[in-house]
Every structure is written in C-alpha cells, then in structure tokens.
TrEMBL record:
Keywords: Lipid biosynthesis, Lipid metabolism, Membrane, Phospholipid biosynthesis, Phospholipid metabolism, Transferase, Transmembrane, Transmembrane helix
Organism of derivation: Candidatus Coatesbacteria bacterium RBG_13_66_14
Annotated segments matching region Disordered: 1-20
Alphabetical list of PROSITE patterns matching this protein: CDP_ALCOHOL_P_TRANSF
Its membrane topology: Multi-pass membrane protein
Transmembrane feature ranges: 110-130, 142-164, 170-188
Location of this chain's protein in the cell: Membrane
Pfam families in the record: CDP-OH_P_transf
GO molecular function terms listed in the Swiss-Prot or TrEMBL record: CDP-diacylglycerol-glycerol-3-phosphate 3-phosphatidyltransferase activity
GO CC terms in record: membrane
GO biological process, one term: glycerophospholipid biosynthetic process
Superkingdom: Bacteria
Name of the protein described by the UniProt record: CDP-diacylglycerol--glycerol-3-phosphate 3-phosphatidyltransferase
Length: 213
C-alpha cells in the first residue's frame, strides 16, 4: 500500500514549534466546528425556504475550518496532542450528527449512515486501544480527510434537496467506497504500529538478555 496514503500528514519539522496564539488557532477552529453544529442541526428542522441554504452554508464553513486547521497546524508546526484528538473527534461528531438528522428530515440514506457511524466507532475504538498500548495518538490520514470531504459534500447536497437523484446516488456510493478505503488504511496503520511495538519490545528484551550473558 502506498506509504503516502497510509501515513498521517506531519508538521513542518524545519520550523520551530509554534507558540502563543498560533499554537492554539488550529484547535480553536476544531472547537468552533462543534459550536456551529447545533445551529446546523436546528436549521435542518426548520420548514422555511432559507433554512436549508443557511444550514448548507454553515456546513461548508465547517468543512473549510476542517481543512484550514490541519493546514495551519502543519505549516506552523503547531500539532498538539489535544489537536490530534479534537480534530478527528470533531469530524466524527459533526458528520454523524448531521447524517442522523438528515435521515429524519431530508431522506439521507439510512444504510450510508450506518456505514459512517460503524466506521467511526471502529476507528475510535482502535485509536483508544492504540493509545493505551503505545501511549500514542494517531493523526488523521489523507484518505480519511478525503472521505470526510466527500461525505460533507453529500450532506450539503441532501440538505439543499437539489432533486438530482443521480447526483445523490453517485455521491452516496462514492462515500461508501471512500469509507471502506479509509477504514482499510486505518487498520493497516493500526496493525503496522502494533507490529512495530512488538518488534521494539522484542529488540529491547534481546539487548537486555545480551547484557546479562
């Protein structure tokens, strides 16, 4: 599997770590997405003609913040442990909540919502296990970000009720494919890191044994 797809985008190591407000800006953008979410969910429930457009606009703003927080974190070398957690968590909460609400009010496919939520639960469980075993928080990867973008676009299309069935169907299946691909890549990374942990432990044990002899 291409290493570029499986690995996480890293910070600019040629620059000193960001300090002060720069270090917190990416995290503030992630938190802002969570603040926007209740407003989006409320707008989806309104019957007014302007409400879907307002909801879609806020969704697009949230997607822009999602791309910007990672870009700034890498460019400014402002990747933090909190940021590694809040960014993917914000992705999953925003996408999952919006999908459930759109199933109720906009005819969003229930099967796709199950796929999205199921993948996110597996990734969160894997991340928790990895953190316990390696004391390491995995970052989002490029495939996961691409999947989140396409899912966001699909949510916007359903929010606007465009009436283009072919577009809704195409985006839904593209989402499913990207969901499966991002999950496969995450599992690949997860087991690779576990193997590296096991190899590291074995190597350490062997060194200690050699000293004892």
């Amino acid at each position: 599997m291409p290493r570029g797809l499986a690995d996480s985008p890293g910070p600019r190591t040629d620059r000193p770590p960001a300090t002060g407000i720069r270090r917190q800006v990416p995290n503030l953008l992630s938190v802002t997405r969570l603040v926007i979410l209740p407003v989006v969910l409320y707008l989806v429930t309104l019957p007014a003609a302007w409400a879907p457009w307002a909801a879609a606009g806020l969704m697009i703003l949230s997607m822009a913040f999602d791309g910007l927080d990672g870009l700034l974190a890498r460019r400014w070398n402002a990747v933090t442990e909190f940021g590694k957690v809040i960014d993917p968590v914000a992705d999953k909460i925003c996408i999952g909540a919006a999908a459930v609400m759109l199933v109720i009010y906009r005819g969003f496919p229930l099967w796709l919502t199950v796929v999205v939520l199921g993948r996110d639960v597996l990734i969160l469980l894997g991340g928790c296990l990895l953190r316990r075993r390696r004391r390491e928080t995995p970052m989002s990867n490029y495939a996961g970000k691409a999947a989140a973008f396409v899912i966001g676009a699909t949510l916007v299309v359903y929010t606007l009720r465009t009436g283009y069935l072919w577009l809704e169907t195409a985006l839904s299946w593209l989402c499913a494919v990207l969901m499966a691909a991002s999950l496969a890549i995450y599992l690949y990374r997860y087991f690779r890191l576990i193997r590296e942990k096991g190899a590291g432990s074995a190597s350490t044990g062997g060194d200690h044994g050699g000293e004892g002899r």
